[in-house]
Write a structure and sequence with these properties.
alpha+beta; 3-stranded mixed beta sheet; 3-stranded antiparallel beta sheet; 3 helices; GMP Synthetase, Chain A, domain 3; 2 domains
Length: about 140
Amino acid sequence: MKIALKRIDDGFNMEAVDEQGHKVLMDSSVENGGKNNGVRPMQMLIMGLGGCSAIDVVMILKKQRQEITDFRIEIEADREQGKEPSLWEKAHIVFYLSGNIDADKASRAVELSMNKYCSVAETLRQAKTQLTWEIKLNS
């Protein structure tokens, strides 16, 4: 993997581009001297957790011939207070799945993602982040 990052203003606004040309804007908060023109790098890590797990769960359920009509994730995460660097202390993921999906298969798909396949989850776990989750099926 190769990522190119460049500063695009006189503050902290950065543009990251991957090998395929996909772009992401990052910035700092106004309180920290940024202009709030992009995602904070630590937020991006939590977004990556959601994306990584979402791909796993959808892939597993599709292989099991489950019909997914809607899928979304919400994540609440807290960082350590009063520390530098301030790591993620805990993250709680809520998986919202709709469709003709067996509850046991949904539960197993999420379990496999969070404990076996999702590299971002394991990266956070190695950093001592407490990961919890729940599934809301057809709600």
